[in-house]
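[User] I have long wanted to understand how a fold can be written as tokens. Those tokens are not coordinates but codes from a learned vocabulary of shapes. Could you go through the record with me and say what the backbone is doing? Thank you; the sequence and its tokens follow:
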Amino acid sequence: MASNTPLDHRNLVIYEVYVRNHGISGTFADVEADLGRIRAMGVDVVWFMPIHPIGKLNKKGSLGCPYSIQDYRGINSEYGTLEDFARFIETAHNLGLKVMIDVVYNHTAHDSVLVAEHPEYFHQDESGRPVTTVPDWSDVIDLKHPQPDLTEYLVETLKAWAVFGVDGFRCDVASILPQAFWLTARAAVEEVKPGVLWLAESVHASFVADRRARGLSGLSDSELYAAFDLTYDYDIWPIFQQAVRGAVPVKRYLEMLAFQNAIYPQNFIKMRCAENHDQLRILKLAPSRSQGLAWTAFEAFNRGAFLIYGGQESAATHTPSLFEIDKVDWGSYELQLFLTRLAGLKKHPALNGNLYFLAAEPALQAAWAGGLGRGLYGVFNTSGQLGRVEVQLPDGDYLDLLTDQRVAVRGGSLDLPLDVVVLEVEDLRTYCSLRFELLD
């Protein structure tokens, strides 16, 4: 774990933006005009998917992918100018928001500015032609690490963006680059701007295993924590998806969460989400809307930072294309209040305690407890069933923090909510065993 990572990073709410498809014009100005609404949701950090010029050679789709970058030091003219981005950062900072940008240092576009000047920076085939090491990524070519001159160029680029005003870096497929690169980059950026947020897109375990089998770089999450504050949840993402679909028992997913608690540094932080730009929308993945909302709420309740993907607040079921103009249908923002309440939970004092899993079926039950103060008790109807469910609470009336409604516990049970209830409980440790036998 990066030694200077603040523990309160686990309470962050991050909002992901694809500038091209966020607003009518697809510009920084569109997103800037929306910042007040985004901040009001309880968001702490706005993360921009890549903002740099997109390659045209061998591009995918009619407009190309933002992760196929021509120039790490430039701005995509579709989005505006460097001055427009500077104004965006100033507006965000004035609202108390931090700004994070995507860093894509594993690969570039086929027509990137580095290809002609430094072909030696790239993986090459037998004829000396730059290539990708991931065949499906046909619109990019891979940088070959480590190389001192390449490292210097990339690190100087990061430092420049930090000085410009950027507050964090989301590092694409961070697991593919050497650990030494990230340690060098973090230390150098810290010298010019202390406290920059580092989020690693750590990859699926199967991807790491395949890379290593082919003699290529593949870092585990544990290795990434030496340089990063947060990593993705992709190490157990396939189990999460199967649990949402009902293909594996929810208990299996809880076992994997408990496994994370045992194998990573004690202060590890995951970025939890129910969806992002590479994954199905949760309301598309889940068998029913109510189950999708239950899973969304649990990921906000879960240990770690929480990601909201632009459009989630409008109950979107469509993931916008990376390669085309494919606007978010904002509609009436029907889930904005729901997500705002979830974001508010991240700042509840109970989340500075410990998270316990209490039950898996018919509803996932979990509790945050620390000392003898107020705790949180969550009942997440991931099964979509209705009826009553036994809970570890004494009879009484409790306040649901998501709706401000009273919830009655009678005879040690409550009416199973349509999707979720989160109850505030005094001296929660007094009532709960705070123990769940995960392993058979």
Residues 7-347 form a domain with the TIM Barrel fold (CATH 3.20.20.80). The first helix runs from residue 19 to 22. The chain has a mean pLDDT of 94.
